[in-house]
Description:
290 residues, alpha/beta, six-stranded mixed β-sheet, six-stranded parallel β-sheet, 12 strands, 39% helix, globular, binds NADP nicotinamide-adenine-dinucleotide phosphate
Amino acid sequence: MAKKLFRTGLIGYPLHHSLSPILHGAMYSSMGIEGEYRLFQIAPSPSGESYLLDLLKQVRTGELYGLNVTIPFKNKIIKYLDGLTQLSEEIGAVNTIYRENNRLMGDNTDVDGFITDVKKVADKPIERALVLGAGGAARAVVYGLLKNKSNILISSRRLEQSSSLAENMRSVLGVKDDQIIAISYSVEEIAYCCSQLDLIVNATPVGMTPDISSSPWLPGVPFPKHAMVYDLIYNPAETKLTSDAKEEGLVAYTGMGMLIEQAALAFERWTGRKPSREIVTQIIKESQWH
Ligand code: NAP
């Protein structure tokens, strides 16, 4: 009898630039699994919804082992699922769908993907962090840092967006008001607040290909001396932010480690097996992508 192909994939729109097939392909080959990871681009239309329902049915029946979820479905998918992990319920977003006891479940591996990678590279506990941006990725970052007892300043160009994220996290996690504070995205306020930071996270798309000469770090604000910079952007592999920070003597990383970690955690959900992050990183480095 022919061996069953391990089929998974990603739903979202648009998807042409996704690296996930390369990442999951690297995991399959490193684990000796014969698998297929496909991009299921779902246009925002009535036919898109029936395509989505059909894919979910394939997870229920086991034709698909699972699905990753990206923009714009991370919240929208929730109403179609039978249950959520506590983390995805608290964060209100799903990036991994799997089947458990015939139930269609949603999980979120972005939080642990970020925290695991940051802990891997940080040389000290993160007591004070500044997060730039207040969208979906910032939410995962803030949630993970708060769970790890960090104090957070969050700054986005629309103050109401960061204030609302801060307020929501206070009520979801029950943290003290001053454990997360929204500040304006201005030279004065960031310069005033940032001297004692351990970590700066870029959770905006500023600096991402093709806009590689831009940085979210406002000109005129000195980098805090002892902070580590973590830019969630993974394309390019070095951003203007990380290169400027390194020039000032800071340690700085882009987001490939997080991307690999969140993919590996989804893979573990589906297979119960743990791929070697080192082998996957090596395969990605050797691939044409890098
Ligand atoms: P998002 O939900 O669209 O949020 C982006 C945030 O950045 C918003 O607060 C947005 O403010 C702000 N922003 C956008 N353009 C800006 C500009 N020119 N100046 C200042 N602020 C700006 O996006 P996301 O899903 O959170 O993703 C953010 C970044 O993280 C992307 O680069 C993405 O590739 C990266 N990411 C990486 C990983 C990884 O595994 N490494 C995972 C997830 C995301 P407005 O709402 O006002 O536009």
